[in-house]
Target: Phosphoribosyl-ATP pyrophosphatase
Amino acid sequence: MAKTEKSRKNAPAKSAAAKPEAVGPATPDVLDRLFAVVESRRGTDPAISHSARLLARGRRKIAQKFGEEAVECLIEAVAGNRDELVGESADVLYHLMVMWVDAGVKPGDVWAELLRREGTSGVAEKASRPHDPLA
Ligand SMILES: N=c1c2ncn([C@@H]3O[C@H](COP(=O)(O)OP(=O)(O)OP(=O)(O)O)[C@@H](O)[C@H]3O)c2ncn1[C@@H]1O[C@H](COP(=O)(O)O)[C@@H](O)[C@H]1O
Model:
């Protein structure tokens, strides 16, 4: 797909670290901070918080928005639009955080699962699965 109006608007600033309003360095810690902010928005005024609005709309809407953002992300990836892919990836991560808050998943749960998988080749893991005669 051609670059959408949203994706152009969504392309990231060249240096997020240089943003004067940034509250921390451009490191993965930003995900923990984002989660904490989204979680703190639960039950607050949907008129002033997009997270509150999404959480109030419920699980199906949250899942739908996540799916839409994921599709927009893959479209930019396939099109080779690197900057737009960065912006859409941020949207996906934000909407994933909203989905985690709604589902009661903590970032640490996912970090622990990633840690558990660390060092295990995906090829070896797949080969170790029980044989499925229907596959
Ligand atoms: N990272 C984000 C973020 N990414 C995207 N968005 C918002 O997500 C919305 C996506 O718009 P869409 O039109 O796709 O979706 P929609 O408004 O639900 O429209 P419909 O599909 O319902 O028609 C926009 O309002 C974006 O601004 C975000 N809103 C908030 N955050 C972070 O969450 C924090 C808390 O935000 P609030 O909850 O709004 O205070 C912020 O400080 C940011 O760090």
